[in-house]
Amino acid sequence: MRVTLKLYSANKSAVTSSAIEKCLREIDYLTVEVSRTVGPANYFDIEKSLLKDDAEPVAFPVEDISRMKYSNSAEMARLFREGSFLKVHFTRSGSRRIGAIGQELSQLTRGLFFWSDSSLGFGPCDITQGIETPDGEEDVRLVDVAHFVFSITCDNFTDDPNILAERSMQSTTWVELQRSFELIVGPLTLFVSF
Asked: What pTM value is reported for the model?
């Protein structure tokens, strides 16, 4: 199953161009891909609509920037626009810090975690969780609206996702990165989506 570990903050005022630049400097990278939505990253509405039988095939918020390559944190910070979600993709960035987190999480989960994706996001973004209704139907619930999100994903996690949350707090590299971000944007919430 696809499992994503997220550190997020719902504190809108913590996200400034300066904070974005500082957060980007916490992760080493050569080149990253940057996307920006036209409005909020309204995943809750999108996921709810996809559950309907007559759903339109819309899986992502509309973007005005899609996976453009950048290597300068100040340039990326200037792309931030109030009311939009700026996402920095680290998947092919060559980040040793994220690679170390992925490796340590793999060791802590007996080799069940394989890092497949990672990103930083700034601006309004729905944090959602797939759920099952009392009638056994698939549904989705809105957990929170984040304004800062760091995530790392494993596409094929085969253990209990809650174990991953416990193990992440045993990961020195994860905890160090969390503390670094908290010095910039304030307290963060750990959330596991699957």
From this structure: 0.92
